[in-house]
Amino acid sequence: MKMTRVLFAGALIFLAVCAVVTRAARAQSGAGPQAGASVPAAKKAEEQFKNIQTLKGVPADQLIPSMQFISASLGVECDFCHVQGAFEKDDKKPKQTARKMMEMMFAINRDNFEGHREVTCYSCHRGSPDPVATPIIAAEDAKTAPEGKKVESKDASGPTANDLFDKYLQALGGAAAVEKVTSRVAKGTIDIGGKQVPSDVYSKDPGKRASFMHLPEGDSVTAFDGHEGWIGVPGRPVREMHGSDVDDAAIDADLHFATHLKQMFTEAQVRGIEKLGDHEAYLVVGRREGKPPLRLYFDSQSGLLVRLIRYVETPLGRLPTQIDYADYRDVGGLKVPFRWTVARPSGRFTIQVTDAKQNVPVDDAKFARPPAAPEESNAPPK
Description:
Blueprint: H1 3-9, H2 14-29, H3 45-48, H4 63-74, H5 93-112, H6 121-125, E1 150-152, H7 161-172, H8 175-179, E2 183-192, E3 195-204, E4 208-215, E5 218-224, E6 229-232, E7 239-240, H9 244-253, H10 257-264, E8 267-276, E9 279-288, E10 291-299, E11 305-313, E12 318-331, E13 334-344, E14 347-358
Antiparallel strand pairs: 1-8, 2-3, 2-14, 3-4, 4-5, 5-6, 6-7, 8-9, 9-10, 10-11, 11-12, 12-13, 13-14
């Protein structure tokens, strides 16, 4: 099961790819839940999946993100360690090695960092199956300050996080303009690996959002109704969102995100100025109770939000998702980004909006889960 191949060849967005990955792993577990069935929050990995050893006790919904973290850290696909169609088998040596490496990582952090996760797979592997043991010789044209690296530390006399939140709100058009938006319909295209796919995004207050990618074989849908989310891929059963996917969907669905920023965080700190392309941006790190932090980048001149980085928490480390916002345009007195690029370790896609309307009727049926389809056979792929 190659996520990258599925992503580009099948032209499926990342959440759809996650649904495919989850389906294969559930096949390994013997019997996945029917669409619409609830999964107990306290269910452990070993209770749902077969032959779990090193990650016993880990919540079941964190197992697949953990595997994705390893994939991103080593730059490999699932079949590097696993047998296709029989994930529980121990036939491949890299799987045995991976278990030992996880145990070593846990021991290093336990014995040297008071149990805090300071060392991860990526600390040594850096995207390669073989750890980097020798310092790299500097290239002749090496940059002294790569993009994204902090170039200026926080100035005590500079803006606070709340100052930047206020400036962002005003740059959009003001609190009144944000709060009066009850719905938004955006139409455009998604660029995945150079392939343009038509797309529609429907948002409705409070906190509902559905995105449709119109593929030749049918629509790929990611929807959130304000409480729970689901993912529909052509030819496959509908899958529920769990854990961090639900949290991310709630953020994406919030039409009043700019007015909610101050209440969202238990603590928000300005961490300095970073260079993003040709522009400088203030970095604000916002911490939330019981959830990974958010990193928000506000353009130092316009005040607009130009980047958001969020994380999926796993026992092995955090998986990042970066969203870049650009091409802000006025829609009914409110500035809306018409282009956003979503990047993860496995790849990226860009959504370009061509038309956006606000405060238009949106049927709640857009966010409703479709009727359950019969579960497909769990036979290994040929």
